[in-house]
């Protein structure tokens, strides 16, 4: 798990950070629960040893001069195949009659 990302961090940026690491599979950026919380990312590797090597090599990386460094921790499990970050979840289905809008012409 990667913490300390910029508020506007993207999966592409995290991909660029880890894609040269042996065993890299994918990443998912999860937005913070509120607008004041920074996003974090899950990064998946083929084997635990590869994840550890990537963590050691990328620990303390900064995105821009003057910004805090990222903090990386080993996650307890792989990213589930069906995982969807909270702000990307589909909106709940609204049941009921469709809303109709009428225009008046004079």
UniProtKB/TrEMBL annotation:
Ranges for the RRM domain?
Answer: 1-77
Kindly give the InterPro entries that the UniProt entry links to this protein: Nucleotide-bd_a/b_plait_sf, RBD_domain_sf, RRM_dom
Keywords of the record, alphabetical order, are: RNA-binding
Q: Write out the GO MF terms.
A: RNA binding
Q: Where is this region: Disordered?
A: 87-106
The protein here is known as RRM domain-containing protein
**Origin species:** Spumella elongata
Q: What is the lineage of its organism?
A: Eukaryota, Sar, Stramenopiles, Ochrophyta, Chrysophyceae
């Amino acid at each position: 798990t990667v913490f300390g990302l910029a508020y506007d961090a993207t999966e592409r940026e995290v991909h660029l950070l880890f894609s040269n690491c042996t065993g890299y599979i994918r990443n998912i950026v999860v937005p913070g629960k509120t607008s004041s919380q920074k996003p974090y990312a899950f990064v998946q590797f083929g084997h635990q040893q590869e994840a550890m090597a990537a963590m050691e090599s990328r620990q303390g990386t900064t995105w821009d001069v003057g910004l805090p460094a990222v903090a990386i921790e080993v996650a307890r499990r792989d990213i589930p195949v069906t995982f969807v970050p909270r702000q990307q979840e589909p909106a709940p289905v609204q049941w009921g009659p469709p809303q109709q809008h009428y225009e008046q012409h004079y």
